[in-house]
Amino acid sequence: MSQKIVTRFAPSPTGYLHIGGARTALFNWLFARGHGGTFLLRIEDTDRARSTPEATAAILKGLEWLGLDFDGEPISQFERAPRHAEVAHEMLANGKAYKCFSPQEEIEAFREAARAEGRSTLFQSPWRDADPATHPDAPYVIRLKAPHEGATVIADKVQGDVTFRNDQLDDMVCLRSDGTPTYMLAVVVDDHDMGVTHVIRGDDHLTNSARQVQVYNAMGWDVPVFAHIPLIHGPDGKKLSKRHGAVGLEEYQAMGYPAAGMRNYLARLGWSHGDDEFFTDAQAKEWFELEGIGRSPARLDFKKLENISGQHISIAEDAALLSEIEGYLAAAQQPALTEMQRKGLAASLPFLKGGVKTFPQLIEKAQFALTSRPLDIEEKAAKALDTVSRGILKELTPRLQDASWMREELEAIVTDVAQAHGLGLGKLAAPLRAALAGRSVTPSVFDMMLVLGQDETLARLNDQAA
């Protein structure tokens, strides 16, 4: 592609960042980054009653967690209102728009009568072709002089050609009587001024596109490439809502999914590259094309999300993983790690990250390294610490005092002591788990010994020895 690609994500700051919005942002990011293009962020904050700084902060935080970096500073749509009004007046001057003096009561009366008579409720303004000499000195809106014959066709990269009959589209208001621009005008002006080449957004915007294309045409501007992606549905096939569970992006961080797993899963939610399920960011950027997006709504599947997340945890670098776990704890409003716990968890990660799917599971496995003496022994684990087992632990402790603390030697010593009592290694593992972790389900006892180190291991064994 010779043209430099520019995409944008344009959320409204009226609440949390919805998972559907996060996927839209991801698709725009992947497409731009994969083609050496630009990915921009525009905050559509024209709804002053509902837009809040807190919601804007939540959007920025969500994008940061998901790892979607945008180019330049976020653009405020509200701050660009004078530019939007300028374009409305330019269309007015060029005969592409007109002043409409019809009050709201008149429009409502027209629609009520049309409904009663079974006619189209699209308002046909009597001012469309009125002589300016007849204009009253009264408040007016600026309406687009939209074509009434023929059709508007959206050549969509996902949906194919979508046709709208022009007689089904009204002369939309571009500038209100108080001089403020409408959302429909603002979006087109912003996308044009920002140089957006590809508009990738939810298919609930398809009708908007038909009306927005008419503004592009009226201004003689290039129409961007459109790609309207299907919405995300819940596992039951119905539109995703809070009854399906988490719908806000920040909830997924608080549930303990890694950002890389979330990116991978969201990319596969409605887009595919052959049969590939698990892939890296580099692969996703290389592979992502609009033609790979399906037309049917994607279904949220937590099992798939968990499986993909587990694979990403297993290949993550330990330092990055530790940092992300700390971010998870903060998001989940859990206590921060102490310095001792941080060191213990860092030492444990190479042994623990292979068999977990979420951060809560990883932290559960790491409890032995996060807790300090004296251990609180679980009831089930305590049963393994009978008199015989405690006696064996007492015998094992001096043997371990002179060990070099290499895995092979530790295994040899423990196996030797077990065999001396006619036991298999598995039989001695249960009391060792209880003594080292206070639990019956733990990582390998040798992994725990290596993480805890010689002094702490011996101290814990001594605490439980008879």
Automatic annotation (TrEMBL):
Name its cellular compartments: Cytoplasm
Domain Glutamyl/glutaminyl-tRNA synthetase class Ib catalytic, first and last residues per copy: 4-306
Record keyword Ligase present: yes
Q: Please report a single Pfam family linked to this protein.
A: Anticodon_2
Q: Which GO terms describe its molecular function?
A: glutamate-tRNA ligase activity
- What keyword terms does UniProt attach to this protein? Aminoacyl-tRNA synthetase, ATP-binding, Cytoplasm, Ligase, Nucleotide-binding, Protein biosynthesis
Superkingdom: Bacteria
Q: Which InterPro entries match?
A: aa-tRNA-synth_I_cd-bd, aa-tRNA-synth_I_codon-bd_sub2, aa-tRNA-synth_I_CS, aa_tRNA-synth_I_cd-bd_sf, Glu-tRNA-ligase_bac/mito, Glu/Gln-tRNA-synth, Glu/Gln-tRNA-synth_Ib_cat-dom, GluQ/Sye
Write down the EC number.
6.1.1.17
Extent of motif 'HIGH' region: 11-21
Reaction catalyzed: tRNA(Glu) + L-glutamate + ATP = L-glutamyl-tRNA(Glu) + AMP + diphosphate
Motif extent ('KMSKS' region): 239-243
Q: Which residues form the Aminoacyl-tRNA synthetase class I anticodon-binding domain?
A: 331-463
Binding-site positions, ATP: 242
Could you tell me which CDD domains the record lists for this protein?
Answer: GluRS_core (cd00808)
Q: What is its main location?
A: cytoplasm
Family listed: Belongs to the class-I aminoacyl-tRNA synthetase family. Glutamate--tRNA ligase type 1 subfamily.
How does the annotation summarize its subunit structure?
Monomer.
Which NCBIfam families does this UniProt record tie to the protein? gltX_bact (TIGR00464)
What does this chain do? Catalyzes the attachment of glutamate to tRNA(Glu) in a two-step reaction: glutamate is first activated by ATP to form Glu-AMP and then transferred to the acceptor end of tRNA(Glu).
Q: What is this protein called?
A: Glutamate--tRNA ligase
